[in-house]
Queue: 2 jobs
Job 1
Amino acid sequence: MSLVGDYDGNNIFAKILRGEAPCVKIFENDEVIAFMDIFPQSQGHCLVVPKNTQARNLTDFAPERLGALFAATQKLTKAIISALNPDGVIVTQFNGAPAGQTIFHLHVHIIPRYENLPLQRHHEGKPADIDTLREQAKRIAGALEN
Ligand code: 5GP
């Protein structure tokens, strides 16, 4: 069952965290890494992924670390608003395959919304151009408060 089970250390986010797979990184600290989603649902869609955990979803993450995860999520959301000027922002995460989860290492989505621009469907977005992701990541990183 995807909602409950053992952590698979070969998931793609674990590989990114170990430096075994690439990502377009925006920032990292001791608690999290944030990078661009490779199949963005909108321009600037990014992910906040906690380090040093085997939490598959929200339910098995250490509660004392939630503050750091959501502080980073807030910081990144504010930077995205400043850098990309969206009209709204979705902050969400999925628990279990029937809920939409495909990668079983806890992560938070930050998905900017732009009026009159449709959202790509989850899992059905087109792979992004890497240079475009790099340019967006640079703009977002530049807007991060210290
Ligand atoms: P979930 O469906 O588990 O909530 O979200 C997983 C997200 O990871 C999806 O939005 C998907 O586009 C993204 N994703 C899948 N594979 C990769 C990858 O190799 N690199 C990056 N940066 N994102 C990925």
Job 2
Amino acid sequence: MPIRVLDEKTIARIAAGEVIERPASVVKELVENALDAGATQITVEVRDGGVAFIRVIDNAGGIASAEAELAFQRHATSKLTRIDDLERLTTLGFRGEALPSIAAVADVEMVTAADGSAGGALLALKDGVIITRTSQARSRGTTITVKSLFRSVPARLKFLKSTATENSHIAAVVTRYALAFPEVKFVLLSEGRTVLQTTGTGRLLDVVIAVYGAEIAQKMVAITAAAAGWQAGAPADISVTGMVSSPVLSRAGRDALHFFVNRRAIDSRLLTYAVEEAYTGLLMQGRHPLAVINITLPPALVDVNVHPAKSEVKFRDERVVFAVVQKAVRGTLVTLAPIPRIEEVGRSYTGTRPSPPIGRATWSSAPAPTNDSVASVPEAVQSPLSVSLPALRVLGQVAGNYIVAEGPDGVYVIDQHAAHERILYEKVKREKESAHIEVQGLLEAATLEVTPAQDMALRECCRELQTFGFTLEPFGERSYLVRTVPAVLSRGDWSTALREMLDCPSQAQAERDDSICKTIACHGAVRAGKTLSDEEMRALVRQLEQTENPFTCPHGRPTLIHLSKRQMEREFGRV
Ligand code: ADP
Ligand code: MG
């Protein structure tokens, strides 16, 4: 065949094929346009799997009458003028290809009324050519009706699946955008039935209820602010919000994994992997979580122009995005759905005893300071070793978190978790230095499932962990039997502590030992919120008094605040 230039209609249909693959693609493009225009209400109606009829109605700003025709011209867009604009793009569309592509493969009718315009415009196109143009009344917004999709492209028509399958693709598109835009009211009518209706309240949970039902929604947890702490170290301008399923919930497929980058629905193997990684050890093999993951990052850090349907993106730094998502999800799961603990532990079965406290500054007999020299904690924190804690008389517990005590110079409020962390940290450190770690045998060996990365770390540091009291044996693929744990952790969350140690990158030996001591102390320490008996509080305060540095926890946060007599007098206007 000789080389020939294709006629325009053929060119348009070929180009349209890239963007409009099936009825759901039409729905996607029209919904994106409505969202870009600022709709708060979007109704989608389809018949015959979308092949016979698709209608999308929005209440957005509409198109000015004079521009209505332009909207159907290829590469005509109001969203971008220069290629550099892509770096600042906040809209879902940007190529000006959707409307002309749809018009190239279907009959299209558009009725649109712009803000402040007198009436609306009606435009009808067949084979990409305008056949009717008149005015028509309409309230603010746009209605686009698409009929006889692919009638002019029989090859494409043949490739479509059953009506039910096409309808389910359409429902998936609407569902995704409903999840991405909880503030928009979506209605999807399929073959005359309402199959999805969201409330537009702006709460993701409400959309999750509309999509998956209340029972499932109940088992979804929001990615928490606490988990945001897990994002530490990540660039401040990348954030992750959304909801993930608690480990009690799972699905056989990955259809309930939804990813949005700057509110654009995308497919991403990278992000799928990041989320599934976070569930390692929490779900049975072959099961998948539900997740709505919203990633917000500066448009310049993501290229949206890599796929004809705009359903894939390229991140400038994939590793960072992967890590941020993985940690946010893992952090949420760890905080809200703690890994089941082994509550029953037997008596310590190895004979090692903690070494007695080694020499340190005397404390209780130290003359109680009578002036302001230890009055304020910040001062004390600055030079913690210069002063020791006076003997304190416990008065009670406040808010399930704080022990209130009286000292020779006023009142002390002690953070029970931070204080206990300090006590355990020094204890573990002492025991480690003297190679006498007190260990606790588990009544029944417990299994620990780890991620591939943790597995590698564990292979390297198994012996080292043993010197801290963890006895682990390989037990199948990425699974270990835990036989003993440091005694300090026996009532704490040792599995989380272990995972945390395995997650922290290798450091110099001394630093590493120290950070292991901190992790053990943190997870062994009494939790904030736990009610303590008077006896327990007294014991905790006594032990705190005996530490080398009673004023801060191992992470440097204060363990107590002090309100001196003088401060009280000042506050009450007595001096
Ligand atoms: P793109 O979205 O890439 O700009 P489209 O072909 O999808 O290209 O749409 C062309 C233009 O038509 C848009 O840039 C927008 O200005 C206008 N438009 C399309 N749909 C709507 C709508 N529902 N409401 C308001 N304006 C719209
Ligand atoms: Mg568009």
